[in-house]
């Protein structure tokens, strides 16, 4: 390298013209001492990255964990909850009392907060103001730095305006039946993708769901509608379980809240005949029509406004209109395909690995995840295919 160029680079560094490399955040949980309440219960198992093992804590107004950092200050915290979730605040000592330095007001299964680095003893207070139980699986403690490539998942809020909304009955349905949709549209194309689930009562499946979504590049926190997960042999019984109007209103409110241009849901035959898949698919069609009517469910219409979905796709169908190519290499995933990433994400649903489908079905296989039918459109029929957003310009 010539001497003038070396001098120029040195000058740029001195003047701050060259951006400094951001360090990756470091897991410091093993260096910290973590104890519950008045140091009466050691909690090392909450920093071991074992998301199955955890603790159920009996009802209290406040559940307080004290953290004593090691050599490295703590600047990022993520809490993994089990069945019982609570909002929380991070407090550091201020004279004889405690001052709040960060707060999480909405209880989420994976809940992240960033704060100014704390080197001295501090505490995490879980409380909703009531006498409530708490189930913790993990408390991740990290230093300052970038979170990419770490165990941290700093989820964004759910979409205010979605390009694509996936609507399924259960966790993992979005991977099995829609294949590479999430890796392609959320991970590769960086579009706003909102995942919505009619059911998810099991805390373990909720964690599996979140880990799978994150692996696919989804960063907006999903909506878990909380309807009962019971499989019935007849569609009418499945509708009765949820309530027809409840099913319609649940989806209408999601549509109005997230304002998707495209909605993707189950096969009308429920793939292999699952009645909750059928009800979700049928109710989705009705909800697309109702969401555009300001006279239906006036409460959500007032809160969010009426919304017209531009396109509704169902998986499979007798006369498919669109065949997606989930086998194209995706730069965002190092050249792996959307179908490969979906298969990896499905493996994260460890509790479901005894089912008949070990991976999302590919082209030509039964329940092919590349095949979709456009059943409602305000922008005309598909022509070129291979793009669920055909004829729609993403904002």
Q: Averaging pLDDT over every residue, what do you get?
A: 92
Largest sheet: 7 strands, mixed
Secondary structure category = alpha+beta
The number of helical elements comes to 9
- Described by its quaternary structure, the protein is single chain
DSSP summary, beta strand count: 17
What is the approximate shape?
Answer: globular
- Poorly predicted regions are none
- The percent range for strand residues is 25-35%
Biggest sheet strand order reads 13-12-11-14-15-17-16
Helix content: 10-25%
How many whole angstroms does the radius of gyration measure?
24 Å
Q: Order of SSEs, N→C?
A: HEEEEEEEEEEEHHEHEHHEHHEEHE
Short description:
24% of the residues lie in helices and 26% in strands. By secondary structure, it is of the alpha+beta class.
Describe the protein:
- By secondary structure, this protein is an alpha+beta fold.
- The chain is built from nine helices and 17 strands.
- The strands form three sheets. The protein has a seven-stranded mixed sheet. A six-stranded antiparallel sheet has the order 2-1-4-9-6-7, with no helix packed on it.
- Helix 3 crosses helix 9 (338-347).
- The longest helix is centred in the C-terminal third of the chain and has 17 residues, at 275-291.
- The two termini are 45 Å apart.
- The model has no long low-confidence stretch (mean pLDDT 92).
């Amino acid at each position: 390298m010539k001497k003038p160029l070396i001098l120029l680079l040195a000058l740029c560094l001195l003047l701050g013209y060259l951006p400094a490399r951001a360090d990756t955040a470091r897991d410091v949980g093993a260096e910290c001492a973590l104890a519950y309440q008045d140091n009466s219960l050691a909690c090392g198992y909450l920093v071991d990255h074992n998301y199955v093992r955890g603790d159920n804590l009996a009802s209290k107004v406040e559940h307080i964990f004290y953290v004593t950092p090691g050599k490295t200050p703590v600047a990022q915290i993520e809490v993994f909850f089990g069945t019982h979730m609570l909002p929380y605040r991070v407090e550091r000592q201020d004279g004889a009392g405690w001052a709040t330095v960060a707060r999480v007001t909405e209880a989420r299964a994976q809940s992240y907060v960033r704060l100014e680095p704390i080197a001295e003893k501090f505490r995490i207070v879980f409380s909703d103001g009531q006498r409530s139980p708490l189930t913790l699986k993990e408390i991740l403690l990290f230093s300052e730095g970038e979170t990419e490539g770490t165990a941290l998942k700093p989820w964004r809020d759910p979409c205010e305006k979605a390009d694509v909304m996936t609507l399924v009955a259960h966790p993992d349905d979005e991977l099995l039946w829609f294949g590479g949709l999430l890796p392609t549209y959320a991970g590769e194309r960086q579009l706003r993708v909102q995942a919505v689930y009619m059911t998810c009562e099991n805390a373990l499946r909720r964690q599996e769901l979140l880990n799978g979504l994150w692996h696919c590049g989804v960063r907006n926190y999903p909506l878990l509608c909380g309807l009962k997960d019971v499989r019935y042999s007849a569609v009418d019984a499945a509708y009765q379980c949820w309530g027809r109007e409840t099913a319609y209103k649940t989806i209408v409110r999601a549509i109005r809240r997230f304002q998707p241009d495209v909605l993707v849901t189950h096969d009308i035959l429920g793939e292999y005949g699952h009645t909750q898949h059928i009800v979700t698919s049928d109710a989705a069609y009705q909800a697309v029509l109702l969401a555009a009517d300001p006279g239906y469910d006036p409460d959500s219409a007032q809160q969010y406004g009426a919304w017209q979905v531009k396109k509704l796709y169902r998986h499979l169908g007798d006369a498919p209109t669109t065949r997606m190519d989930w086998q194209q290499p995706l730069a965002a995933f190092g050249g792996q395909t959307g179908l490969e990433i979906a298969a990896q994400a499905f493996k994260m649903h460890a509790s479901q690995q005894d089912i008949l489908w070990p991976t999302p079905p590919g082209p030509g296989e039964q329940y092919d995840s590349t095949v979709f039918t456009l059943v409602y459109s305000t922008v005309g029929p598909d022509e070129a295919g291979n793009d669920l957003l055909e004829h729609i310009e993403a904002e």
